[in-house]
Please model this.
Amino acid sequence: MSTLLEVSGVSVSFDGFKAINNLTFQINDAEMRAVIGPNGAGKTTFMDIITGKTRPDSGSVLWGEKSVSLLSMSESRIAQEGIGRKFQRPTVFEDQSVADNLMLALKKERGPLSVLGFRPSTTDGEKVVDLAEQIGLATALHRKSGELSHGQKQWLEIGMLLAQEPRLLLVDEPAAGMTPAEREHTTELLVEAAKTRAVVVVEHDMEFVRRLGCKVTVLHEGSVLAEGSLDHVTSDEKVIEVYLGR
Ligand code: ADP
Model:
């Protein structure tokens, strides 16, 4: 399996405070990874660095087979490279149907010109149905998104990101505020998505991380404190001390 993203020795300071401190991280194609760590560990800043929102003071962020540097690219260029990010709060168009939201996301993939000359083709229609099935909203295609449950909105937003066919999907606390059944579905959705792309899940909920069944990276004070299976990292003395507060 080839390396998709390679972050090496990255640091960033805010007013002299090192939020990210010599961080090194790698993820392969079609790999799922959970990133955990206490509040202030640097998880958000780390995601901001990958997406180009925050520029590191030092280190490198290399992408793809050709190991191109993401550091010289704008945020929108990085998104075009195939890095999609889902924030905690869903940002779907509430007054539009599920189908329309997915269709808009498909158009976005092809850039602004496709919006001007847009005519939904059978293929687009089929893709929307496929995506809706993938996210478990096939029977809600014509419902207004504003009427969906919190969990359903989260899935719709994941579907909208999948429509853009990212190679790396960054997801921030996808299970927050969900019912147990919704969490179960979210797990299945992410595990399925990670079969064909890399997925990084920033998460607090250990039970959810366990269900993802993936390698875990523990951040603390802007560095990687431990990495490996959930059982491995949660039995690490350093992790127990700083993360579990024992
Ligand atoms: P996490 O997502 O793990 O909770 P963050 O990446 O949000 O951690 O924050 C890491 C540290 O960097 C925190 O101490 C936070 O206060 C600090 N920080 C993050 N962004 C900024 C900023 N724009 N200005 C100053 N400090 C910041």
